[in-house]
Design goal:
Blueprint lengths: L8 H4 L8 E5 L5 H11 L3 E5 L10 H6 L7 E4 L8 E4 L1 H12 L7 H29 L10 H20 L13 H14 L5 H4 L5 H11 L2 H6 L7
Bound molecules: glutathione.
Length: 234
Amino acid sequence: MTDLTSFPITQRWPARHPERIQLYSLPTPNGVKASIMLEETGLPYEPHLVDFATDDQKSPEFVSLNPNGKIPAMIDPDGPGGEPIGLFESGAILLYLADKTGKFIPADPAGRWHAIQWVMFQMGGVGPMLGQLGFFNKFAGKDWEDKRPRDRYLSETKRLLGVMDKQLEGRDWFLGADYSIADISMLGWVRNLIGFYEARELVGFDDYGNVAAWLERGLARPAVQRGLGIPARP
Ligand SMILES: N[C@@H](CCC(=O)N[C@@H](CS)C(=O)NCC(=O)O)C(=O)O
């Protein structure tokens, strides 16, 4: 019987199936990277809802697994050498699950590095910039009279969409014919930009036809649709 009691997070979110991967998350653009990947790979896992309304992500139990206090985080009871491993940072989680399963990352070294490169592009650019644009367009920042902060993130978002659009010219997915963790890292962000963040008109999304077609292809995947709702909100 797998024992995860050495992970304090399991005191607040008990593992009913400790032999399965434990996911601590919420369906936000960073959270859904992990749930989509888990759904795509078919690995057995147990999702736990981390509720921002009660600041669960800052609780001592959560911070014991992720000192950065942000979702997603996970425990794989069957980590390297058969020992349990805890992980945070969605990019690291995607890479770990890709390596564990050999899925959604090319086997050849050059292709593998290209996948990592686009995941880094998402982690360092797409996530932070689109997230800030969301803040200034939809949330507290929208009331700021000075529009220069919003416009800085707007122009950077448009620039990034341009980079993505160029890469997707003549390609179904970021790496070409094969869907990969690069796509998984970005789908939730672009969906949020034009959905929840209500920035479709603002960024002129229809100017980025390759990105729009890619998003549609991604959202048509059943595992993506399932992952977008996991863990279910109360
Ligand atoms: N670089 C981190 C970012 C994680 C992140 O920003 N998560 C957000 C949700 S999308 C969060 O937990 N926010 C709650 C908070 O900051 O308190 C990753 O990719 O995992």
